[in-house]
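Section 5: illustrative case.
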């Protein structure tokens, strides 16, 4: 298993995930030399949602430009990440299983944490032996310990305390920092993460529902 954590710019992040993608793609040997390499790009929200669409754009361009043979890229959006219910996930897993039952995948790339969580949940049903790379997510969403032998994670780390410290360095008279957040499952998750981080900070206090 491989995991790449740390602070990185958008360009550095894209470059790291593309290098990892090529390593996995070269290692994939399920397709014969005459068959196209089949890659599944699994989107969390849709192909046009920023900033994830920029990561997907870079991945597609590099795969098509540097492919040594024919490339067959399939793009699917789970979309259920935009709703609190998960009732749409099992039918989507069934669809992906049927789609690739006779046409084996060589590589799966998930974009965003919801897509990673979905594929981890249903990978035994969809394509258990296919190498997968989880991209465009924070390291807490796919911990290193949860990665299987044929999985890799290209993740960033968000340092909440460091963000506040930088704000105070630039604006030392700051007393309150307001963060506007919604009520989706992802936003609820990050609210709990913020609470957990700042609860251990003696000079921080989190107040919500105000």
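Designed sequence:
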């Amino acid at each position: 298993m491989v995991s790449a954590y740390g602070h990185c710019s958008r360009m550095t992040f894209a470059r790291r995930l593309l290098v990892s993608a090529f390593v996995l793609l070269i290692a994939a040997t399920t397709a014969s030399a005459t068959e196209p390499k089949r890659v599944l790009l699994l989107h969390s929200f849709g192909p046009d949602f920023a900033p994830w669409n920029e990561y997907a754009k870079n991945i597609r361009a590099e795969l098509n430009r540097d492919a040594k043979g024919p490339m067959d890229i399939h793009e699917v959006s789970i979309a259920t990440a935009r709703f609190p219910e998960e009732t749409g996930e099992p039918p989507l897993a069934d669809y992906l299983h049927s789609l690739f039952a006779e046409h084996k995948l060589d590589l799966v790339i998930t974009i965003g944490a919801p897509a990673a969580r979905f594929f981890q949940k249903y990978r035994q049903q969809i394509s258990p032996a296919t190498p997968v790379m989880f991209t465009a997510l924070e390291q807490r969403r796919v911990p290193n310990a949860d990665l299987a032998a044929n999985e890799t994670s290209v993740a960033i780390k968000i340092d909440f305390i460091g963000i506040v410290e930088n704000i105070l360095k630039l604006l030392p008279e700051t007393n309150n920092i307001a963060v506007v957040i919604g009520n989706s499952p992802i936003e609820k998750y990050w609210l709990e993460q913020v609470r957990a981080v700042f609860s251990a900070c003696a000079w921080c206090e989190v107040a919500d529902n105000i």
